[in-house]
């Protein structure tokens, strides 16, 4: 529990950055020094104005009591920073947000960029006979970055463009109070929000900007999350879940919640986290597979689940996590696994269409820091058989085992070929060899070496696995045994099929992967709020 | 993993019912014998018609190949049983469902009650020169209960009321195929669907009907789930989640997913499940509390989560589970915890209103088996202080510690008093003594012995806990230490507050409890799909 993922303090920066390069640590150190100097300079630059201030009521720290639910009578709400436009010129407003930067200019003036979510506005604190004292300017200049402040002032519209803020108005401050104070920051939000392109561009102009690496970000996740790109990513993630649910509810599915603590291992295969359950050996669900099928055996007809999935992975890759959010679907079918693929097709096209429609701002925010091309997909999703895929690879000289699985490289290559030939980065590959699929996969009617299964790819990476399931208990047992699974460990599951299971199928996707690949991001840790990987269990 | 929760077979019934009473076991045995006799009688009553049947194509078992995705060309879909009405008289229909009961009458006729979800229809198989042979009647009569069958036939409208089916039409069968066969059942759906009142009524008339007890139900959950009441309960559960999300999304919240595997214990207090995470000690989240607060520190503003919550409970009560689905909310506030209570108020009134509007059928289905009075609640939720609650109890002679917590009995009593005085079974009790709340609870501004916290009650049972949180790191550390929490175990959490946390608050509820109490059910195991309690880890 201790160690790598603690947020650094002044004392233990070195130990924190054990995952970061030394170079990065040096940068951080330099940054901190600069910040401390800035803070020092800010207070020093002010006058030594210690005499009583008759305007003292206009600024200062909000007493904690005031925020301990004392001011119930105060039902007014601040204006949103994002709503500050020319239309409000000369209006008095109250805004609340973070002091992103504070810049003192001489003794009589201080500029504060106030940020609320992804919106920023410049606040100008100038000495004024009836409102702003020199002491107040000093107080403001001494505020620490990221502190939360309440600002009251008049909206003004400057004649020139304001660079570095989203809002094109200023607030001429009359009152300013600090609600919560921040200590010196390990990373600045401006630095964390910078794109690689910006850093390169500055470098070419001879300026060296701070680049915050992944581990430093994740160690200080509560700060890192404040960047516009991250606010965008997690709003998009929320929206994917919303569209997923709305589509399925409208198709007569309903939502279930299956247990995550189970006896045995959920599907045999991959490594599971084990725990002690009241003296019984138990493990965490690698997927809701078995229980969602048991819900179908219970005549639930069409179900979905959004929930935690746990895998004791040893893969240190850009796309594996030890804990992620599963998007799972299971449904009765009449005759064919194409009924499941039809749902996949319409569901994901709806997700992509709706994201492009409703998340434009968020997608732009992500793209500003991590540039990407919008996903290319067809109104009706391309379906290729595994055989056809293997042939396409063969045609360009890539040899793969026609009865084996595709490795990551072959999948990426095939993605490229499909894009060139069909103009889509989203497609379904189906009829996989039976040998490479889980035991519950239904073999093909015409060739038991193949299966009624499919994988779905975005930008050359697998995001969905699905199939028709074996619903006949005798065949299910036979397949489980063939896959080396101890029947005793799945007996409750097998029993559910003895009382007649309807023909059914389903699929599962990972929410973090969907968001990562839709946004063309290079690492799944960017789309997991507090990622868990083989090296990271905190924060 | 073996033992108590396996589905029984003929061999090991005794071991299965170790949780059931002997009486129950005897009933089950009797039931099985009756079923076996019925099956025997059905095949015996038919003619020994072994000669070739020129109408053989009209019935029989569907070959597995046909359901292995062979018949892709067949895009027709069966008519839903729930859609079978007078309007379809004389129409030819195809329906698919389960053979709930099969009753042979002589050699030429057999009645099958076909069930699809909560709908049932009577199918009549009568010997007809061009469609139905005696062999077909024999085949039908020999089907096992709960087998899935395809039926083709003509809709007819009988002149008398049909008892025991939901649909008031019959299907005159021309073709009947068995899609999947069931083995002899440990419980009949009709028995599992019976209300206690029905059983009592029959008993008074001298008839002894089977009562299926809770453990037998849960051991055979995939069968038990097929009852109309259970289909209703889990559709209502899905709808609660949907309304919860829709309301919060419309109020500018968004959905997050926090990690369930964590270092340390999430809140100190209650027992946690421990596991090994790549050599590091870890535990399962008792709630998303710390991480949802860290999301607020990350400027997410307003968030919610629906996800698994894990508690190593030793409570063997009707309302505790070791794993349940948490409904969690966290939000920035400006000044007062009443801002959080306002959301609770409007959110839950919206949930109740919408359930009553949109889930009428489901609520009726639940009520038929488990009768309950609709929840009494006010358009604007009653708020009482803890002190007022204690006084109400005192006034009727119930003495409780004014600085302690209310026990279950006192809560129930207070619920009764509130109902009598204010006419509501849903209310908020706030300003609890600080000593009985978790460390992250904000003390009151005017008296640190009290806290800015609340509990919410339905029908005298607590379903929601919430509060304003401490957002100042120094006070947070002080409170954690006062509650005996080792600061090292929550250091990542504490660090998130050093960079200025906004004033905030939130609350958490349990989905299963909300459904249980809204429907007036007596056991939380009824509203958990596959419950996990101190004695149950399967199925």
Automatic annotation (TrEMBL), chains A, B:
Key word Nucleotide-binding present: yes
One Pfam short name: tRNA-synt_2
Gene Ontology process terms (BP): aspartyl-tRNA aminoacylation
Residue segments, region Disordered: 1-37
EC number(s) stated in the UniProt entry for this protein: 6.1.1.12
Top class in the EC scheme: ligase
Record keywords, A-Z: Aminoacyl-tRNA synthetase, ATP-binding, Cytoplasm, Ligase, Nucleotide-binding, Protein biosynthesis
Bias type Polar residues, positions: 1-19
UniProt-listed InterPro entries: Aa-tRNA-synt_II, aa-tRNA-synth_II, aa-tRNA-synth_II/BPL/LPL, Asp-tRNA_synthase_2, Asp/Asn-tRNA-synth_IIb, NA-bd_OB-fold
Residue runs in coiled coils: none
Intracellular or extracellular location(s): Cytoplasm
Catalysed transformations (reactions): tRNA(Asp) + L-aspartate + ATP = L-aspartyl-tRNA(Asp) + AMP + diphosphate
Domain Aminoacyl-transfer RNA synthetases class-II family profile: 234-531
Example GO molecular function: ATP binding
Disulfide bond as UniProt keyword: no
GO CC terms, sorted: aminoacyl-tRNA synthetase multienzyme complex; cytosol
Listed Basic and acidic residues bias regions: 21-37
Family in the record: Belongs to the class-II aminoacyl-tRNA synthetase family. Type 2 subfamily.
Protein name: aspartate--tRNA ligase
Organism annotation: Prunus yedoensis var. nudiflora
């Amino acid at each position: 529990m201790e160690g790598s993922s603690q947020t650094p303090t002044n004392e233990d920066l070195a130990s924190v950055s054990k995952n970061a390069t030394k170079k990065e640590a040096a940068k951080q150190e330099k940054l901190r020094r600069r910040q401390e100097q800035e803070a020092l300079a800010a207070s020093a630059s002010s006058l030594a104005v210690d005499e009583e201030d008759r305007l003292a009521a206009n600024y200062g720290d909000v007493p904690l009591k005031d925020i301990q639910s004392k001011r119930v009578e105060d039902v007014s709400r601040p204006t949103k920073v994002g709503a500050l436009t020319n239309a409000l010129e000369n209006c008095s407003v109250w805004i609340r947000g973070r002091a992103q930067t504070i810049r003192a200019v001489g003794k009589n003036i201080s500029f504060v960029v106030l940020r609320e979510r992804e919106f920023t506005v410049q606040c100008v604190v100038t000495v004024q006979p009836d409102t702003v004292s020199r002491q107040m300017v000093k107080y403001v200049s001494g505020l620490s970055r990221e502190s939360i402040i309440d600002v009251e002032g008049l909206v003004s519209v400057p004649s020139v463009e304001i660079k570095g803020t989203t809002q094109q108005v200023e607030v001429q401050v009359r009152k300013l109070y600090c609600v919560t104070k921040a200590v010196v920051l390990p990373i600045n939000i401006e630095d964390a929000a910078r794109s690689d392109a910006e850093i390169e561009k500055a470098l070419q102009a001879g300026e060296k900007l701070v680049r915050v690496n992944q581990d430093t970000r994740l160690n200080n996740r509560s700060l890192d999350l404040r960047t516009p790109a991250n606010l965008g990513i997690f709003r998009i993630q929320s929206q994917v879940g919303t569209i997923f649910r709305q589509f399925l509810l409208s198709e007569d599915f309903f939502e279930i919640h299956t247990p995550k603590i189970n006896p045995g291992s959920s599907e045999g295969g991959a490594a599971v986290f084990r725990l002690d359950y009241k003296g019984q050996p138990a493990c965490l669900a690698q997927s809701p597979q078995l229980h969602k099928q048991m819900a179908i055996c219970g005549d639930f007809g069409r179900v979905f689940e959004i929930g935690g999935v746990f895998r004791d992975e040893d893969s240190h890759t850009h796309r594996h996590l030890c804990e992620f959010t599963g998007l799972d679907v299971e449904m009765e079918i009449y005759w064919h696994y194409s009924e499941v693929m039809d749902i996949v097709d319409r569901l994901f096209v709806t997700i992509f269409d709706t994201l492009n429609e409703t998340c434009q701002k968020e997608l732009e925010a992500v793209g500003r820091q991590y540039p990407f091309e919008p996903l290319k997909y067809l109104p009706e999703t391309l379906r290729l058989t595994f055989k056809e895929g293997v042939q396409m690879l063969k045609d360009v000289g890539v040899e793969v085992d026609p009865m084996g699985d595709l490795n990551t490289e072959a999948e990426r290559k095939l993605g490229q070929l499909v894009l060139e030939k069909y103009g889509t980065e989203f497609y379904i590959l189906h009829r996989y060899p039976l040998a490479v699929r889980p035991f519950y996969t239904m073999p093909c009617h015409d060739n038991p070496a193949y299966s009624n299964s499919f994988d779905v790819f975005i930008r050359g990476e697998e995001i969905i696995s699905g199939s028709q399931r074996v619903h006949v208990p005798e065949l299910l047992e036979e397949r489980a045994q063939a896959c080396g699974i101890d029947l005793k460990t799945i007996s409750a599951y097998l029993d559910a099929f003895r009382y007649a299971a309807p023909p059914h199928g389903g699929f599962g996707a990972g929410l973090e992967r969907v968001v990562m690949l839709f946004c063309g991001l290079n690492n799944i840790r960017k789309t997991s709020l507090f990622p868990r990987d083989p090296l990271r269990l905190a924060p």
